[in-house]
Amino acid sequence: MTGKAYDSIKPIIWQNNTLQLLDQRLLPGEQTYITLTDVKSVAQAITDMVVRGAPAIGITAAYGIVIAAKQRFTENPDNWQQEIEADLQTLAQSRPTAVNLFWAIGLMREVIKGLAVDDPVSTLLALAKQIHTDDIAANVKIGELGAKLIAEKCAVLTHCNAGALATGGYGTALGVIRSAFGQDKISHVYADETRPWLQGARLTAWEMVYDDIPVSLIVEGAAAHMIKTSQMSENPIRWIIVGSDRIASNGDVANKIGTYALAILARHHGIKFMVAAPTSTIDMNIDSGDDIPIEERSAEEVFGFSGRKVAAEGAQARNPAFDVTPAELVDAIVTEKGVVLKPDLEKIKALMINVA
Ligand code: MRU
Fold first, then answer.
1. What is the per-residue pLDDT across 250-291, written as a single tens digit (0 to 9) for each?
2. Residues with beta carbon inside 6 Å of ligand 1?
3. What pLDDT was estimated at residue 324?
4. Which of 50, 192, 244, 275 is the pocket-test mutation for ligand 1 (most atoms within 8 Å of CB)?
5. Would residue 245 show up in a list of annotated catalytic residues for this protein?
6. Structural domain of residue 201, as residue ranges?
7. How many domains does the structure of the chain reveal?
8. C-beta atoms surrounding 286 within 10 Å
9. In 10 A of CB 326, how many CB atoms?
10. Which pTM does this prediction carry?
């Protein structure tokens, strides 16, 4: 694992008692870190996509709570545990779909409740760091388990960015791709450019190029054609590998808008659909994908890109950021605790028994 991009791509850094986020809106052209010193700015950075990707959002929120605790404790050492709840709410409102955000806030809240009044910061920082390092370890395990499912050398297709940038490091879907490529099981990666934020074009392609993994960008609309025509080629696309923002207890999967269409394509063309995600992405409190809140972002993001408007004046736009793939279209959910093939409620329950 040494000397590779995922060791050096660090979306979130805690250094000198400050939180630094790599501004992903500027990648790949510019690598700039933003320093955040108050919880409102942390929540705003999540909303504004400075940091994005479900696990990365959760880790950022955990560090945001450390910042909040420091401030609240300094201002009012007797009542900080009650007052900090407002900060937890602020963070919880930053983005609605990725459950890792609420999972991380929940873990931090539990510790806050049980803390003695003196110096909460070191205990909370230790937990935030643990959430961060556990996520990297989970991704390495997911990579290992996911690669095992790829039986013969093939091309794969991925969507959005579920890489080092979207996580504590290494990546979920890109973790599987990294691991399988290292075992000579992947000949080529096709990356959907992923409108409107172009996470595929800007982030996934950057990570793959950085790691010397051959990658071709395609527009989302090209996926069906590429899957179909590749079947007769030397590099057939045999797997679609994606991450997730929230997996319901029945195995329905929310991920970046466009994922559902890919799952339908996979089934139609007889190729496999893999979801790589840590167990912190599984929400056992909801029965199905119908209960997953789908973020609808500003129409401005669809009208153009990077501040430049290209759409016709007067047109309206819809901008759902995620969609839900029904469990019956999912061949495998790969987590750090094991693989669930053809997911359903019973299998997900059995997996989650292993989660502390
Ligand atoms: O809007 P984004 O960029 O936060 O969406 C990210 C995704 O949809 C990822 O696929 C998902 O969070 C998994 S990241 C390991």
1. 999 999 999 999 999 999 999 999 999 999 999 999 999 999
2. 52-55, 98, 160, 162, 166-167, 172, 199, 243-245, 255-256, 321
3. 99
4. 244
5. yes
6. 144-353
7. 2
8. 18
9. 17
10. 0.97
